[in-house]
Design a protein that fits this description.
The complex is a heterodimer.
Chain A (H helix, E strand, L loop, with lengths): L6 E3 L4 H11 L3 E4 L5 H6 L7 E4 L9 E3 L3 E5 L4 H5 L2 H6 L2 H6 L5 H6 L2 H7 L5 H8 L3 E6 L2 E6 H4 E3 L2 E2 L6 E8 L5 E9 L6 E12 L2 E10 L6 E4 L1 H4 L3 E3 L2 E3 L3 H11 L10 H28 L7
Parallel strand pairs in A: 1-3, 2-3
Antiparallel strand pairs in A: 4-5, 5-10, 6-7, 6-10, 8-9, 11-12, 12-13, 13-14, 15-16
Helix pairs in contact in A: 11-12
Chain B lengths: L13 H5 L14 E7 L5 E7 L9 E6 L33 E2 L5 E7 L2 H10 L1 E6 L6 H6 L12 E9 L2 H7 L2 E9 L11 E7 L4 E6 L4 H11 L7 E4 L16 H13 L3 E4 L2 H7 L6 E9 L5 E11 L9 H9 L8 E9 L14 H19 L3 H8 L8 E6 L5 E4 L4 H12 L4 H10 L3 E13 L5 E7 L5 E5 L8 H13 L6 E5 L16 H28 L6 E4 L2 E4 L2 E7 H7 L9 H6 L22 E6 L5 E13 L6 E11 L6 H21 L29 E5 L22 H13 L5 E2 L3 H10 L3 H4 L3
Parallel strand pairs in B: 1-12, 8-29, 10-11, 14-15, 20-21, 27-28
Antiparallel strand pairs in B: 1-5, 2-4, 2-6, 3-5, 7-15, 8-13, 9-10, 9-12, 13-14, 16-17, 18-26, 19-20, 19-25, 22-23, 23-24, 26-27
Classes of the chains: A alpha+beta, B alpha+beta.
The structure holds flavin-adenine dinucleotide (FAD).
Chain lengths: 302, 797
């Protein structure tokens, strides 16, 4: 449980970091919070020749919120994002998801961007990026590009980053007006990676459910986004109560879209079952969250 | 005299241990060389070649050692620690593989380098050529016998053990009702937060060795090292420093590393240290629990158990260094607080190509309890009786003690229960958990759409097994009282409880007492810490030693104060004449007087001279049957084990949609005789219950068909967090043991024993689905609910 030898770089500016990354190319790995990378190194599952520690790079630890989105810098900790009231005001799903990510001590070190780059299909933030139709800003010595969630996640523990690139930030847009959200999961122990997790967003327009979407973790190689609007059409909202929506039907629809695999913690059929149960629960909770905003147009103070 | 024994005194070791001032193995030997091991990646293979060429250039490499480098007794197989007549095919490994490996993780080569990084680099560059052999994974494969773990053992059976009393076949044939079923129990492991570790220093001038080991038995490790390295035991010191948990795995000895690290230290004349990492602990220490049980019970219409016939296959892993203690305990402790007319338990101890199986807290008892308690539940179910009522009808009664179960226990002695009050214990647990009112709770929950259930499990635990422990008590001239005992501590609170006992017996303030455990420099004769024996064994030993010191102190003081011993008492460290506090002398002064001196080297000695007994020219300064010093060493050796007992009851809620189990309440009634420190007993129960919950709901060793352990990390081996452990409600019953001076019974393992049985009972009660395999995960419950054939018949209640 000791890592093989590596060269350690601790750049203090973005340019310097990008310079090192360009130089070391395929042999380099970005070190952010280290909560995933350090165990991998210690177990000698990876042996990068160079570690580029970005924790000292100025200007990367920000959580910037405007009317339409939240942008999280590469070294902003999960905790920074979770506790940021402005971010919660614009995109509540961030906090709803982050409280399920690991434990406080790990959230104090682990970064939200790092968990996207790590691309673990069990990582909550991958589903949040997918459901919010968010994107990441990928930067290298030769410039930046924005990549949306669908293109960013390539497979389990695999994203589209190329040698010499790093993720500079991730942007999570706000949902359309009248949208409520929820994140629900089943994990074996408190704070564990989920056996199945669902991020849901339900939009209510003029008292009727107009859109319902969900994103899933731990049931496929990348976060899976499913549009469930058809199944819940007919749902109505009045006085904060939702009626007429067939959440269970949405659960069944979602089940038909997933092809989960078995592992040591769960059979495939149990995971599929959870997709149904958790979809129904998450949608109902999201709709309930949407309803009051709609019927009582209270302005959040941000 | 203030009462100290029996008080919930705060643990004296906690301030040190919780503020980073503990001295654990890895805190020692900062400049020692570090060792790492090349371990087998195969579950079963011949080792054809070990090529070190690529590794030789690594800077900092000191040495690479394989089996061929070993000689003398070290080149022989490791000892089979506990022989038994039925262990006819015992097998142990070599310290380093001798041509064949039988589980993933078996050590093949030892690397010593300037630090652990170097050692791991080197280990990674050593190329071993294997000829893989088909592995035997799991009890079923072992039982089939198509593939063999040891090619000279045609059936994979290490031992066939039989325990019986009464005529089972006749009783079963005559029984009005019978039930037959099969159960399986998964593997788990002790999993202390601090793994194993060894640090050795060789003194070439003195030809002596000092070894620190994170062990549960320093004296026995010393004996093993001395034998294997051909040293005089007097030239070997073994010290257990602060140990971060043991739970059984560290009673096994000598681990290969406990021999190889001292051996390397002597060979190199350098300090060498090895600290196990978590992956090593998973694949090269020990596991426990795995069993398949076939059970047939005969019972009458009132639910009285007439005959119990149990057939068990016990997974022993690849070797049997600790003998068959675990199956022996299962077979004997299975009976619990009950008295079937006839009982038979036949156990096959099976080899598999997996990590060895040795005792883990509970040590075979959780499995036995699972067999018996689930039988009680089945009988209640079949007869439509309350599960508590069925148990009540089968209990041994208070006037039946001592109760002879007619079997032979793990110490080779008859299984005779010394004390207890099981009906009272049952009454208490029913009251504590609200057993009799549970139907109200159930229907209230049902009205809210919630599914709840209640379960119960009872156990008897043989504790305080011999052969002996000793204690040494010494009053220093300063008045400080040094206590030492040879057995070791792994966080139990021995510094507190042994001090309580001695302070009470001697009549000194608790703060004056300093306790040392597990250091062969201080106490050379000991057995070790296991089997809930420390309080019973060493507790009574230090009590006896303290009584002897007290008697001597009174004798010396009586001489000095010119009064009779009977007139004296010791209060707060001062010997005084009863009713006349002015005629008194401090125990420190008595200590000075106890050692007739020629030289007054300090004030204490000088001041004491005025009390010196009138010199009797015809009497030697030290009497013929006396010794200098106010100290005593005594031993406690019981004729039999003491039998603690208890009953657990749990209320669970099951989310019918997600199949998750939540423990709403967990109640414990516990009887370990007189309580030395109720807070520490409570802590022991809490920790045990947590491990019981782990075994019932979370912990599995996921071996694949190749014998690879798939979840060898804390990420995937689901040891419960504090968040998974419910609040634990406890009540104590105290039936003192007649077998020892303090009237105590052990408490260390109690909490874990009935966990699986109790939670299985509760889950079954909630869902009406039969639980016959533990642990049960949400995924398991989901699959059970989908398929259980018995469900429709039983319905859900
Ligand atoms: C006990 C435990 C439980 C956990 N439970 C959960 C959980 O339930 N849910 C969950 O989502 N996560 C969980 N995690 C993971 C945690 O969220 C990690 O912090 C996160 O996955 C990675 O973030 P990091 O900052 O620690 O990244 P690091 O460990 O530093 O890096 C992880 C990977 O991402 C790459 N990387 C990081 N930042 C960048 C960047 N800016 N640009 C390019 N590449 C980058 C690294 O090179 C590396 O390959 C858990 C971790 C632990 C230790």
């Amino acid at each position: 449980m000791k890592p093989p030898a590596f060269t350690y770089h601790a750049p203090e500016s973005l340019d310097e970091a990008l310079g090192v990354l360009a130089e070391v190319g395929e042999d380099g790995k970005v070190l952010a919070g280290g909560q995933s990378l350090v165990p991998i190194l210690n177990m000698r599952l990876a042996a990068p020749a160079h570690l580029v520690d970005i924790n000292r790079v100025a200007g990367l630890s920000t959580v910037d919120t405007n009317d339409t989105s939240v942008t999280v810098g590469a070294t902003a900790r999960h905790t920074d994002v979770e506790l940021d009231d402005a971010a919660y005001g614009v995109q509540p799903l961030l906090r709803q998801a982050l409280r399920l990510v690991a434990h406080p001590v790990i959230r104090n070190r682990g970064t939200t961007v790092g968990s996207l780059a790590h691309a673990d299909p069990a990582g909550e933030m991958t589903a949040v990026l997918a459901l919010t139709r968010g994107s990441v800003r990928i930067t290298s010595g030769s410039g930046s590009r924005n990549v949306d969630a669908t293109d960013f996640f390539v497979g389990p523990l695999e994203c589209c980053l190329r040698a010499g690139e790093m993720v500079e930030s991730a942007t999570f847009p706000a949902f359309p007006a009248g949208t409520g959200s929820a994140f629900i999961e089943v994990a074996r122990r408190h704070g564990d990676y989920a056996l199945c997790g669902v991020a849901a967003a339900v939009t209510v327009l003029d008292g009727a459910v107009s859109a319902a979407r969900a994103a899933y973790i731990s049931v496929g190689p990348t976060p899976l986004l499913v549009d469930l609007t058809d199944a819940v059409a007919g749902g109505a909202v009045s006085g904060g109560a939702v009626s007429g929506a067939d959440w269970a039907a949405a659960g069944r629809l979602a089940q038909s879209q997933v092809s989960p695999e078995a592992d040591i913690h769960s059979t495939a059929s149990y995971r599929r079952h959870l997709v149904g149960v958790l979809t129904a629960r998450a949608l109902a909770e999201a709709a309930a969250a949407a309803a009051p905003t709609h019927s009582l147009p209270l302005r959040r103070s941000g | 005299m203030t009462q100290i024994f029996g008080e919930p005194i705060t643990r004296r070791e906690d301030a040190r241990l919780t503020t980073g001032r503990g001295r654990f193995l890895d805190d020692l030997g900062r400049h020692a060389l570090a060792a790492a091991f090349v371990r087998s990646p195969h579950a079963h293979a011949r080792v054809r070649e070990i090529d070190v060429t690529a590794a030789l250039d690594v800077e900092g490499l000191i040495g690479i050692y394989t089996y061929d480098d070993l000689d003398g007794p070290l080149a022989e197989p490791l000892p089979l620690l506990i022989p038994h007549p039925t262990l006819t095919a015992g097998r142990t490994a070599y310290p380093l593989a001798n041509g064949i490996v039988r589980h993933v993780g078996e050590p093949i080569a030892m690397v010593v380098g300037t630090d652990r990084y170097v050692a791991e680099d080197v280990a990674g560059l050593i190329e071993v050529t294997y000829e893989p052999l088909p592995p035997v994974v799991g009890l079923t494969a072992s039982r089939d016998g198509d593939l063999l773990v040891h090619d000279d053992l045609p059936d994979n059976v290490a031992a066939h053990l039989m325990q019986q009393t009464g005529d089972v076949d006749a009783e079963l044939a005559a029984a009005p009702n019978t039930v037959t079923f099969t159960q399986t129990i998964e593997r788990s492991a002790s999993m202390p937060l601090e793994g194993r570790g060894v640090y050795a220093r060789w003194d070439a001038q003195d030809d002596s060795l000092r070894v620190y080991s994170s062990t549960q038995t320093s004296t026995s490790v010393r004996a093993a090292i001395a034998a294997k390295l051909e040293l005089s035991p007097g030239k070997v010191e073994v010290i257990a420093p602060d140990v971060g948990g043991g739970f059984g795995v560290k009673i096994v000895h000598p681990w290969p590393e406990e021999l190889l690290i001292p051996w390397a230290a002597r060979l190199l004349d350098r300090e060498v240290k090895w600290v196990e990492d978590r992956r090593e602990h998973f694949i090269s220490s020990a596991h426990e629990r795995g069993q398949i049980q076939d059970i047939t019970a005969g019972y009458d219409d009132e639910g009285r158990l007439l005959a119990l016939d149990v057939r068990i296959w016990h997974d022993h892993g690849a070797y049997t260094p600790y003998g068959i203690i675990v199956p022996i305990i299962t077979s004997t402790q299975l009976l619990g607080p009950y008295k079937p007319r006839a009982y038979r338990c036949a156990i096959d101890s099976m080899y598999t190509n997996t990590v060895i199986v040795t005792p883990y807290r509970g040590a075979g008892r959780p499995q036995g309890c699972f067999a018996m308690e689930r039988t009680m539940d089945r009988i209640a179910d079949a007869l439509g009786l309350d599960r508590a009522v069925v148990r009540e009808r089968n209990l041994i009664q208070p006037d039946e003690f001592p109760y002879d179960q007619g079997l032979t226990f793990q110490d080779g002695r008859p299984l005779i229960y010394d004390s207890g009050d099981y009906p009272e214990s049952l009454r208490m647990i029913r009251e504590l958990v609200g057993w009799d009112d549970f139907e109200t709770v159930r229907s209230q929950a049902a009205a809210e759409g919630r599914t709840v259930g209640i379960g119960m499990a009872c156990y008897v635990e043989g504790t305080g097994v011999g052969p002996y422990e000793g204690g040494h008590v010494q009053v220093e001239n300063s008045g400080r009282v040094l206590v030492s005992t040879g057995l070791t501590s792994q966080g139990q609170g021995h510094e507190t409880v042994f001090a309580q006992i001695v302070a009470q017996e001697l009549g000194v303030p608790l703060d004056d007492v300093v306790v040392t455990t597990g250091d062969t420099r201080r106490f050379g004769y000991a057995v070790g810490t296991f089997a809930s024996r420390a309080a019973v064994m060493s507790g009574n030993a230090v009590a006896l030693a303290a009584r002897n010191v007290r008697a001597k102190a009174l004798r010396i003081a009586a001489d000095a104060l010119e009064c009779s011993v009977d007139d004296l008492d010791i209060i707060d460290g001062v010997v005084q004449v009863k009713g006349d506090p002015s005629a008194a002398m401090a125990l420190s002064t008595v200590a000075v007087l106890s050692n007739p001196l020629r030289y007054a080297f300090d004030n204490a000695a000088r001041a004491a001279t005025q009390f010196a007994p009138r010199a009797d020219p015809l009497r030697a300064p030290v009497d013929e049957d006396d010794e200098p010093g106010l100290e005593n060493r005594d031993y406690y050796s019981p004729i039999r084990s003491t039998f603690a007992s208890g009953m657990h009851s749990a209320v669970v809620e099951i989310d019918r949609d997600t199949c998750e189990t939540k423990i709403l309440r967990y109640a414990v009634v516990h009887d370990c005789g007189n309580l030395i420190n109720p807070m520490i007993v409570e802590g022991q129960i809490h920790g045990g219950v947590a491990q019981g919950v782990g075994g019932a709901l979370y912990e599995v060793m996921h071996y694949d068909e190749h014998g690879q352990l798939l979840n060898a990390s804390f990420m995937d081996f689901l040891m419960p967090y504090a968040t998974e452990i419910p609040h634990i409600e406890t009540a104590h019953l105290q039936t003192p043991s007649p077998l020892n001076p303090l009237g105590i019974k052990g408490a260390g393992e109690a909490g874990v024993i009935p966990g699986s049985a109790c939670l299985a009972s509760a889950i079954e009660d909630a869902l009406g689905v039969r639980i016959s395999a533990m642990p049960v995960s949400p995924s398991d419950l989901f699959e059970l609910l989908a398929t259980d054939p018995e469900r429709t018949r039983r319905g859900s209640r």
